[in-house]
Amino acid sequence: MAFNKSLAGYFDDLQHIGIPTDDLQKTVAFWEKLGFKMLGNFDTDDQGNEVVFMQYAHLTLEIWTGDGAVRQTGAINHISLNTSDADAAFKAAKAAGFKMKEDKVQHLDFWQHGIKFFNIEGPNAETIEFCQIVKD
User: Where is each VOC domain found (predicted)?
Assistant: First the structure.
């Protein structure tokens, strides 16, 4: 697939990097030792799984339980790009012919007003998420 600039205007920065874990406390302690601070901690389901967001300077990590840690090179699950309009970005990604990993924009109750997101697949089967933190 040739590079298509039509999606470039729908994100403005790296939002976070997603890392699954089997041991949330151990993983949080590791990143805290590197200087990261916890921004938020959320339940993800009714089975005790959680997601934690940690930040150091401009870099934010999303660390969660429930999907299992890969435990080898390639353990990062996804790279998330910040968007202010997930719905418009989704339409642009579909129109540009990107391989979509969902058939519609997803919603979760993280943060005060929730998030909206979708994922595309890169040429090496990597996941690139477009995520909007809903402001109101």
Answer: 13-133
For the chain, the domains span 13-133
Which superfamily does 13-133 belong to? 2,3-Dihydroxybiphenyl 1,2-Dioxygenase, domain 1 (3.10.180.10)
* pLDDT tier, 73 (very low <50, low <70, confident <90, very high otherwise): confident
87-113, pLDDT tens digit by residue? 999 999 999 899 999 999 999 888 889
Q: Is the dihedral of CA 43, 45, 50, 56 positive or negative?
A: negative
How many residues belong to the chain? 136
Give the tokens for residue 60: 């934010």
